[in-house]
Design brief:
Elements lengths: L1 H15 L2 H17 L3 H4 L1 H7 L8 H4 L9 H12 L6 H10 L2 H26 L2 E2 L5 E2 L2 H7 L8 H41 L7 H16 L2 H30 L4 H11 L12 H19 L7 H4 L7 H29 L16 H13 L1 H34 L4 H15 L4 H25 L1 H16 L12 H9 L3
Antiparallel strand pairs: 1-2
Helix pairs in contact: 1-20, 2-8, 2-20, 4-16, 6-12, 6-16, 6-18, 7-14, 7-17, 8-13, 8-14, 8-16, 9-10, 10-11, 10-18, 10-19, 10-20, 11-18, 11-19, 12-16, 12-18, 17-18, 18-19
Length: 497
């Protein structure tokens, strides 16, 4: 049965992550970069000012006055909780062994352009969001597909179909990348830590039950409880992991130069660990770099839009700026640190990326930390992975619930939550490789309708961006563009800044 599922998934994966899909993924980011004249570069300083810098200037960034929304910082933490997961540790190590050190370079490229993809998604998410019957904000790709693409000439039925497909794929992805893939990593890292200490590891079923209860206690409270949990977990776990990674890199400071040299050289090399040659090898580096980049920062999936749309922000562009920061922090900072840990500690061949010990994925990352921290290294990875993965599960539980709500209505959300926590238990016993492979496939399927929507609505993103920059940087006396819905537009205009 497992083999059959794996074979079917492999066939689908080869299509959704083929050359056309990669062109669509990166091409969307390139398109938005060109249309906005390199907005992620020209407004990089403004992005910092209106995101992290605003934490010290604006109270509503940290706490929302609206009881039916979350703060911008809570939205960021929840979005980061879903993106900073096992992809930042196991996924990067896996990419290096499969695509060579050059995969890291292509991961950066994916992130640079992914910033504008994520920016565009969030701009559209805020512009097309609406309130549900409980007064909560509802936004996401399904809404700008239905109400954006659906309002275009000849696009009514296409928009509706794409919205439904996106929602279905989002639910499946929540079970994959947001659930099974994370739970497997927790059980694997905890087992490795116990074994390293010479103790018997708890059964995967027991660990699955504990994780299931922990997830249920938070998700049952909805976005408010999820956001409150993540605003406490995410800053701590990020600082915890970053500090540990920096310590190891400093311990191997003499290898930083060779590591970066290997990244740039291998990005265009014709030799790989498996003996492959020619353009195929370069394509492997590109493919794995892009796949791991998307798996990590989720730019192009349209996933984080759902939580960003729950923010108390008024300006679509401001939430877009948080989207740029999200990708920058997740990939350029956290993923790069993992890559440097792997490449500077001598556990892989710098020319091919091949593991010198035979360890792969999470085992390779664990090896890097245990080599330098001893037995504590295994404990460190177990703690980091548990925090990363648990917060990811919480974030994705919300994404899946919003997609479920779009398809089946607000009253049925509890059905999804029950299914989700049951899948947590099932994920604890799933093969790790299959879990990651399934996650990749669901990611690819989810990205396709979302990116079609972003491309179709690229002109609108440009218009909203121009409206914002004209008002903020040229003091233009023009009406702001807050929402496609007149009643929401008026309410936001009347709201106190």
């Amino acid at each position: 049965m497992i083999e059959t599922i794996s074979n079917i998934n492999s066939a689908i994966n080869n299509v959704v992550w083929g050359v056309p899909a990669l062109i669509l993924l990166v091409g969307t980011g390139v398109l938005m970069t060109v249309l906005t004249k390199g907005f992620q570069f020209t407004r990089f300083g403004h992005m910092w000012k209106e995101t992290i810098g605003a934490l010290f200037r604006k109270k509503d960034i940290l706490k929302s006055k609206d009881v039916n929304s979350i703060s911008q910082f809570q939205a960021l933490c929840t979005a980061l909780s879903a993106t900073i997961g096992t992809g930042n540790i196991a996924g990067i190590a896996y990419a290096i062994t499969m695509g060579g050190p050059g995969a890291v370079f292509w991961m950066w490229i994916a992130a640079i352009f992914g910033m504008m993809t994520n920016y565009s998604e969030n701009v559209l998410g805020i512009f097309f969001r609406r309130r549900n019957k409980d007064g909560e904000w509802c936004g996401g790709a399904m809404y700008y597909l239905k109400d954006g693409v659906g309002k275009m000439k000849y696009g009514k039925q296409i928009g509706k179909v794409l919205a439904v497909l996106f929602s279905i794929f989002a639910i499946l992805a929540s079970f994959g990348i947001g659930n099974m893939g994370q739970v497997v990593s927790i059980t694997e890292s905890v087992s490795t830590a116990f074994t390293g200490l010479g103790a018997k590891a708890p059964s995967t079923l027991l660990m699955g039950l504990i994780i299931m209860v922990a997830v249920f206690l938070v998700t049952i409270g909805g976005i408010k409880r999820i956001a409150k949990a993540n605003e406490k977990i995410v800053p701590f776990m990020a600082a915890f992991y970053i500090l540990g990674a920096i310590v190891i890199i400093i311990m191997h400071a003499d290898m930083i130069g060779p590591a970066f040299a290997a990244i740039f050289k291998s990005a265009f090399t014709l030799k790989a660990a498996g003996g492959g040659v020619g353009g195929y090898v370069i394509m492997q580096a590109i493919t794995w770099g892009f796949k791991r980049g998307v798996f990590s920062n989720e730019a192009g999936l349209g996933s984080s839009v759902m939580v960003h749309s729950a923010s108390n922000v008024k300006e679509p562009v401001v939430q877009g700026l948080w989207g740029i920061f999200e990708v920058f922090f997740d990939t350029i900072i956290v993923c790069t640190l993992t890559a440097l840990v792997v490449l500077t500690t001598g556990i892989v061949d710098l020319e091919t990326g091949a593991s010198l010990s035979g360890a792969t994925k999470l085992g390779l990352a664990t090896e890097a930390f245990t080599q330098n921290f001893g037995l504590f290294g295994g404990i460190f990875i177990a703690i980091a992975v548990t925090l990363f993965a648990y917060s990811t599960v919480l974030g994705w539980s919300y994404y899946g619930s919003k997609a479920w709500e779009y398809l089946f209505g607000t009253k049925s959300i509890m059905v999804y939550k029950v299914i989700f926590v049951i899948v947590v238990l099932a994920g604890s016993t799933l093969d790790a490789k299959l879990a990651i492979d399934l996650s990749d496939t669901f990611n690819g399927l989810m990205a396709i309708p979302n990116l079609i929507g972003v491309i179709c609505l690229s002109g609108l993103v440009l218009k909203i961006t121009k409206n914002y920059t004209e008002r903020k940087f040229k003091n233009a006396d023009i009406a702001p563009m807050y929402s496609v819905f007149p009643e929401i537009q008026k309410a936001q205009e009347a709201a106190e800044d």
